[in-house]
Amino acid sequence: xxxxxxxxxxxxxxxxxxxxxxxxxxxxxxxxxxxxxxxxxxxxxxxxxxxxxxxxxxxxxxxxxxxxxxxxxxxxxxxxxxxxxxxxxxxxxxxxxxxxxxxxxxxxxxxxxxxxxxxxxxxxxxxxxxxxxxxxxxxxxxxxxxxxxxxxxxxxxxxxxxxxxxxxxxxxxxxxxxxxxxxxxxxxxxxxxxxxxxxxxxxxxxxxxxxxxxxxx
Length: 217
Ligand SMILES: Cc1cc2nc3c(=O)[nH]c(=O)nc-3n(C[C@H](O)[C@H](O)[C@H](O)COP(=O)(O)O)c2cc1C
Hints:
By secondary structure, the chain is of the alpha+beta class. The chain is 47% helix and 13% strand. The protein is built from 10 helices and 4 strands; from the N terminus they run ααβααβαααβαβαα. The chain has helices at residues 3-9, 24-36, 54-60, 72-76, 92-104, 111-131, 135-156, 169-175, 199-202, 210-213; strands at residues 46-51, 80-87, 160-164, 183-192. Helix 2 packs antiparallel against helix 7 (135-156) and helix 5 (92-104) packs antiparallel against helix 6 (111-131). The chain is globular and about 60 Å long. The mean pLDDT is 98. Flavin mononucleotide binds next to strand 3.
């Protein structure tokens, strides 16, 4: 599938066919996309709770009771559902963990380069802590980038998907003990295959015109 085709045909799937399961060789590519998404300073401040069983998906629907009930069936009928979580801070241990992994992966030809990257990343983290006072928000922005990456990846792989902010973050944080792990739920994405009668597949896409969006300089 070429890029424009993937962008034009992907859409927010409102009805998934519960009988259709994503084959492992396709799903593993979505998981690769989760891991390979870029993030500012390579901070990778995310964690993914992946539900592929009926029990797992039911557990996720604890976050769609009441106000968000309109999303429950979209979780239960999907093949796989990912709860995207964000770190709530970047402590010394985690920063060290990333740095050592980069070193192990061969990114630093010299100790000086490694030190420079460590300093640069800490400068950004400290700016967001001390000056902008928005560290959790900055970290969540990285997670949204990952969500976008996963939606495009799904489209290229011929999968249908639905991003959902309509989930109860507090309920899910409690359900998965996320706060204790310095994490918070952010949004969920259902992946699978649409039903033939999904109304949302039949209506045309609507976007503002390029002239509304772009300033060319
Ligand atoms: C971050 C985000 C959160 C969304 N949350 C929901 C949701 O909770 N439930 C839902 O049915 N659609 C949700 N949507 C779908 C949007 O309404 C949809 O992406 C938008 O109308 C554009 O349509 P398209 O995705 O079909 O191109 C969400 C989309 C995004 C990007």
